[in-house]
Specification:
The protein is an all-alpha fold and 83 residues long. The chain has five helices and no strands.
């Protein structure tokens, strides 16, 4: 085995696939949902409200905080019933 750190392998694979993608399709292709295009053009109030609400749910409510995983401590997550 090469014994690479996972982040090094991930970034290396990302760069390799990115290069292959530029060879296959040198210009952007495909379509973008309208709500995403609106956000890129300066955003709109409903989009910003949605982003804020999603952030609040994932950082403040207990059931969705568990979706983040073990908070870096496997034993604590097990005791809390998350894992």
């Amino acid at each position: 085995m090469l014994r690479l750190q996972p982040i090094v392998a991930t970034l290396g694979t990302y760069l390799a696939y990115g290069g292959v993608t530029l060879i296959i399709a040198p210009q952007p292709t495909g379509s973008v949902p309208q709500w995403l295009a609106d956000m890129a053009q300066g955003g709109s109030l409903p989009s910003l409200v949605f982003v804020f609400l999603a952030w609040w749910l994932f950082t403040r409510t207990f059931p969705l905080r568990g979706a983040h995983g073990d908070w870096g401590d496997d034993r604590a997550a097990f005791v809390a019933g998350i894992q």
